[in-house]
Structures are given as structure tokens and as C-alpha cells.
Amino acid sequence: MTPAGTSGGSNDRGGSFNAFFEGWLVRHEHYLEELLSVQQRQESQERDLKDLISRVLSHYQQYFEEKSRLAQRDVFLVFSPTWFTSFESASLWISGFKPGFALRLVFDSVQDLSQDQSERLRRLTEETRLEERVLNDELARVQESLAAPPLLEMVRKRARRVNEGGVEEAAALATLRKALEEVVAGADLLRMNTTLKVAEILKPEQNVRFLTAATQLFLELRNLGLQQGGKRKE
């Protein structure tokens, strides 16, 4: 996808991220194996659990950092990702998972929360909902300010009109690109910060269960998408 005003290398950039994502998925599966394995041991040292948790969180951080670099080059591609299946893309919120979903996953996967932990998680849930609402409003303002059709439809139209349009359209696209970059950056920051705050609230063995559930769900959605409609979203 190469909207007017971007360089002709969008396909190369998308291909580069696709290659990164394929390798990231392989590592993702390996981390799931580690997470499952450590839960089957009779006793696991706390330092070993903390080390695994740190490595899994760094794994997710790597994805966000790589996606951020892609967004700076071609934010339109981030909103119509070729590395996800159509099924996966249907569940996205501002180019990724909705932060509040991670909190629901905690309550589903961790059954031994203390009263203090539950209260802290409930407060975090409310704070996260407010932040999500702010980002939703920001994205809506971007669309409304340009009097555009729905965002993805506009992007698809621009992709079919690569070399058309003049200075005014180029300026409008530059404004849109900058606004979308800021919204995506805010959403990814909220995603990662929410996950890190959850990790601070949970004990190591609870974190392992939470991260196992999150990692499994990601791969289950992936597999369902592949079964339903092929490898890539067109």
C-alpha cells in the first residue's frame, strides 16, 4: 500500500516487517513452551520465574518497538496490517489488542487473587477504560476533521490512486499521517504500560499463568485465522 505522498518502498517495508513477524512468531511459540513447562515442575525457583517473565515481556516490547518503527515509515500499513489474517484483524483496536482485554484475561486466568490485588486491578481497569476512551475520541476527531469516509476505506482508495492528487491532497495526507502516528503511539504505550502494571500487581507464579493465557490466546487466534481464510489478509 503506497498512499500519495509516501515513497514507493512501502511494499519493501511491509515485507521487512512480515519477515520480522514470522521470526517473532517462532520465538512466541518457544516462549509458550517455556511457560507451560515451568508450570509442570514441582518447584520452580522465584528467580527463574522472574527471569522468564522478564524475557516474555521483553519479547512483547520488541514487537511494539518494531511496529513503532514501521508506523513512522508507513502508518497506513499499520492500520491495514498484511501480517495478520482477516480474522485476526477483525479483533484489532487501533492496530492492536485492546488494553482492557488484558485485564479481563487476568481475572479469567488467575483464580487466587488477594483482595488487595483485586482492588488494584479494578482501579487499573477503570483507569484503562478512561485512556481507551480518550484514544477513541482522538481517532474519531482525526476522521471527522478530514470529513473522510471510514479510515480504512480512505486508505484503500488512496492505495489505488498512488500518483494522483496535488499539493493540497499531499498536505492533507501528511496531516493525517502525523495524527495517526500519534494515536498509534498512544495506543501501543497504553497496551505496554497496562501489561507492565499488571505484572507489578501479580506474584511471579500468577504472572506466569497470565502470560501463558495471553500467549496461548494469541496463537489460537492466529490458527483460527489461518484455518478460516489463508495466510495473509489481502
TrEMBL record:
<feature type="domain" description="DOG1">
    <location>
        <begin position="14"/>
        <end position="231"/>
    </location>
</feature>
<dbReference type="InterPro" id="IPR025422">
    <property type="entry name" value="TGA_domain"/>
</dbReference>
<dbReference type="InterPro" id="IPR051886">
    <property type="entry name" value="Seed_Dev/Stress_Resp_Reg"/>
</dbReference>
<protein>
    <recommendedName>
        <fullName>DOG1 domain-containing protein</fullName>
    </recommendedName>
</protein>
<dbReference type="Pfam" id="PF14144">
    <property type="entry name" value="DOG1"/>
</dbReference>
